[in-house]
Design brief:
Strand content: 15-25%
CATH superfamily of the largest domain: FAD/NAD(P)-binding domain
Distance between the termini: 30 Å
Largest sheet: 7 strands, mixed
Helix content: 25-40%
Oligomer: single chain
CATH class of the largest domain: Alpha Beta
Radius of gyration: 22 Å
CATH architecture of the largest domain: 3-Layer(bba) Sandwich
Length: 390
């Protein structure tokens, strides 16, 4: 880190401008903190989710700690029809995020933080422009982008030019006329298959190691109460016995992973979509007809032009570039890739807070979803007040 005067100094630097970052900014604004937000509003949602995607979020899942600029209010003011039990379009939620930022008058510096360092006096964030920001406190709200999981066995097996992760499948029309193999069998994999076929893919096959999930509406009604409990008692999940934590995680898993939304079923009933449960890729070679001949463990061979990994996300904070490039990463204590956090999302580096998916090990699985964004801001805010108050 170069020894130079920062271009800007602030009490709080928020890195990331998705739901968790914008929620934190709204809290800081409401509580009179001097803060800066660096990032691109709703960037992951715009650039790493497919056009036409439908969300499983509830209507009550919003990002305002003050509970005023909610998704329901956005819909009412903009003539958007939202019904309970019906999916929310990706574009609708992106529009809500931009509306939230604008109506809350949250100024976002649209740059990337290249590295984050710690000096004796403060944190220093160096931007891609070369400018720097000094901050007494930092909230990392970088979401899931750095955590896409591509299993090594498939990375080694499949040529890079033919391999992608679902987070890079943004425009389904890019696959028009192509033969596609999707590795994975949860909601993301099935919805990607439907979107690709609807956009003109020649055929889509899915391979996955488990039973085909059942088509059944997910029940998230129990989640908001647990999120609110985290505001009242931030350490409750971390202090539960391991078996009770696992019960909650399993219930969340059952809703999100063992079910497929019923509105997806008629879109999957397509003669261009073929399912291969209880299987996975074991071989890959060039096909005589062009493309790849991928051998599956069920002794079938599928020919594909593209292979898409719907293999989810795995937290490893060492993959966050701004941390690995700076001087404080080695002082961060971790547990299986997750940062060790206190009951206010604060890491073992005082003044550095990490939220969203990276916080789920301590706070529970709900904080990997929008439903936890407003609560996260309130919990971090209480910790900030303790640090900032004289």
């Amino acid at each position: 880190m170069e020894n130079s005067q920062p271009d800007t100094t602030t009490q709080l630097l928020i890195i990331g401008a998705g739901p968790y970052g914008l929620a934190m900014a709204a809290w800081a604004q409401d509580n009179g903190l001097d803060f800066r937000v660096v990032g691109y509003p709703m960037q992951f949602w715009k650039e790493h989710m497919p056009v036409g995607m439908l969300l499983r979020s509830g209507i009550g899942w919003h990002m305002d700690p003050a509970k005023t600029h909610t998704l329901s209010r956005f819909a009412a003011e903009n003539g958007v029809e939202l019904e309970r039990g019906m999916p929310i379009a990706l574009g609708t939620f992106i529009d809500y995020g931009i509306w939230f930022q604008q109506n809350r008058a949250i100024d976002v510096l649209e740059q990337t933080v290249a590295r984050l360092d710690r000096s004796a006096e403060h944190f220093v964030a160096t931007l891609d422009s070369g400018d720097s920001i000094a901050a007494s406190n930092v909230v990392l709200a970088v979401g899931v982008r750095n955590f896409d999981h591509s299993p090594d066995e498939y990375v080694r097996m499949i040529p890079p030019a033919c391999l992608s992760h679902t987070c890079d499948v943004v425009n389904p029309a890019d696959y028009r006329g192509k033969r596609v193999l999707i590795v994975g069998g949860r909601q993301s994999a099935f919805e990607t298959a439907a979107l690709l076929c609807e956009a003109g893919a020649a055929n889509v096959e899915l391979t996955y190691r488990h039973d085909t999930p059942r088509f059944e509406t997910s029940d998230w009604s129990w989640v908001p109460d647990l999120v609110e409990r985290s505001v009242a008692d931030p350490g409750w999940f971390a202090w539960l016995p391991e078996n009770e934590q696992q019960e909650i995680q399993q219930r969340f898993w059952s809703e999100g992973r063992l079910k497929l939304e019923p509105w997806l079923e008629p879109r999957i009933e397509n003669d261009r979509i073929q399912l291969h449960p209880h299987s996975h890729p074991v071989t890959c070679e060039s096909a005589a007809s062009g493309g790849l001949a991928v051998g599956l463990s069920d002794d079938t061979v599928t020919v594909a032009d593209s292979v898409i990994l719907a293999t989810g996300y795995r937290v490893d904070i060492g993959r966050i570039p701004l941390l690995s490039a700076g001087n404080l990463f080695d002082t961060l204590e971790t547990d299986d890739g997750y940062p060790q956090l206190d009951d206010h999302f604060q890491t073992t580096v005082p003044g550095l807070f990490i939220t969203s998916l990276a916080a789920t090990h301590h706070f529970g699985p709900f904080f990997g979803f929008v439903v936890g964004s407003a609560a996260s801001a309130r919990i971090i805010g209480a910790g900030l007040k303790n640090r900032i108050s004289p």
